[in-house]
Design brief:
Helix 3 links the parallel strand 6 and strand 7. This protein is an alpha/beta fold. The protein is built from 8 helices and 10 strands. Helix 1 runs parallel beside helix 8 and helix 4 runs parallel beside helix 5.
């Protein structure tokens, strides 16, 4: 069997194809050199940037993230992290569009509070509707609620991104059943966003049928972020191939690997 058998279809978001199904963040690293090294090790094509926290040209006198994560090599995904209402989120992403020369692909986040960082779904829906009408391609952080995810898709979001658990918690996927329901009904990509802690969490997300995984803390807060980025790359690829292969059914009784019929005495 040749290696070509295992070639996967690309991840397609808003009509653009991406070879990697791992999306990474750009915060919490020791310095920009480590950001560059971990991003490269991840193999990611899409890098998300918190416009309210990271300099991509707002301050010409400060180090610029785009010097180490250049738009010529990566798709920059500006996000509205740190916004707690629809108006602030919309303004932040409009600013990002100006800074990135008309860039349309954005990640919408509207948070409910600064303790849980749980999505504020009424404000998220409101902001999503405004941004879609304004011509943005909106990927959206949301609760793991199938009803809310479907509403966002119907508004016109190009991807829904339910949390696995709280942002930065590293708790992994706490409600795989809800994720499965979202995946089953979706006609846009579903990407796990928030809560991944280690490689097995990423693999499980992909085995459930998610189209991709976005993470930041799980890589940046590891003892060795660069090695963890590489591990996450392998985990996402392994989980995707396991999903495509189709796992064996679970059984209540043992089933021997070698046949018993016709065995030698």
């Amino acid at each position: 069997m040749t290696a070509d058998v295992y070639i996967d279809t690309p991840l397609i978001i808003a009509g653009t194809s991406y070879a990697s199904r791992l999306l990474v963040g750009s915060g919490k690293y020791r310095d920009l050199a480590q950001t560059r090294a971990a991003t490269e090790a991840s193999g990611a094509n899409i890098v998300t940037v918190a416009i309210r926290r990271v300099n991509i040209g707002q301050d010409p006198d400060a180090p610029n993230l785009l010097d180490v994560v250049p738009p010529s090599r990566y798709t920059i995904l500006p996000n509205s992290a740190g916004c707690f209402n629809a108006a602030d989120a919309v303004y932040t992403l409009q600013l990002a569009r100006e800074l990135l020369n008309g860039h349309k692909l954005v990640k919408l986040e509207v948070l409910a509070d600064d303790k849980t960082l749980f999505p504020n779904m009424p404000e998220t829906l409101k902001a999503a509707e405004t941004l879609v009408k304004d011509g943005f391609d909106v990927m959206v952080y949301c609760s793991d609620d199938p009803v809310q995810a479907k509403l966002l898709e119907q508004i016109g979001c190009v991807a829904v991104m339910p949390l696995a658990s709280l942002i930065g918690s590293g708790m992994g996927i706490l409600n795989p059943w809800n994720l499965s329901l979202i995946i089953e009904q979706a006609s846009v990509p579903v990407l796990v966003d928030a809560g991944v802690g280690t490689a097995s969490d990423a693999a499980i997300a992909m085995e459930l049928g998610c189209d991709g995984v976005l993470m930041n803390s799980a890589i940046a807060c590891a003892d060795d972020p660069v090695r963890m980025a590489h591990a996450m790359r392998l985990a996402v690829e392994a989980g995707r191939h396991a999903y495509l292969a189709g796992r064996m059914p679970k059984r209540m009784a043992a089933s021997p690997s070698s046949p018993l019929a016709g065995r030698l005495a």
